[in-house]
Amino acid sequence: FYAAGGEPSSRIAAQGSVPLAVTDLTALSSSEGEEAAARAAREEEQTPFDLANGPLFRARLLRLAGDEHVFVMANHHIVSDAWSAGILFRELGALYGAFANGRPSPLPPLPVQYGDFAEWQRGADHAEALSRQLSYWKARLEGAPAVLDLPTDRPRPAVQGFGGRRESASFSESTTAALSAFGQSEGLTLFMTLLAGFTALLSRFTGAADVVVGSPIAGRTRPELEGLIGCFLNTLVLRTDVSGDPSFRELARRVREASLGAFSHQDLPFEKLVEELNPDRSLSHSPLFQVMFMLQNAPKSDLEMEGLEVESVPFALSTSKFDLTVSLSPAGGRLGARAEYDVDLFEGETIARWLRHFEALLESALRDPDAPISTLRLLTREEERRVVIDWNRTEAPLPVEGPLPRMFEAQAAETPEAIAAVFEDEQWTYAELNARANRIARRLQEAGLSSGSLVAICLDRSLAMVASLLGILKAGASYLPLDPDYPRERIDFMIADAPVSGLLTSRVLAGRFENLAMPVLLAEDAIAGPAGGAQDPATGNLPDGSGLDDRAYLIYTSGSTGRPKGVEIPHRALANLIGSMRTKPGLSRDDVLLSVTTLSFDIAALELYLPLVTGARLVLVSREIASDASRLLERIARFGVTAMQATPATWLLLLHGGWQGGAPERIFCGGEALSRDLASELQGRCRELWNFYGPTETTIWSAIHPVRGKIESASVPIGRPIANTRMYVLDPGGHPAPVGIPGELFIGGAGVALGYWNRPELTAEKFVPDPFAGDGGRLYRTGDLARYRADGTLEFLGRLDGQVKLRGFRIEL
Question: Is the Cβ–Cβ distance between 598 and 723 less than 8 Å?
Answer without folding.
Answer: no
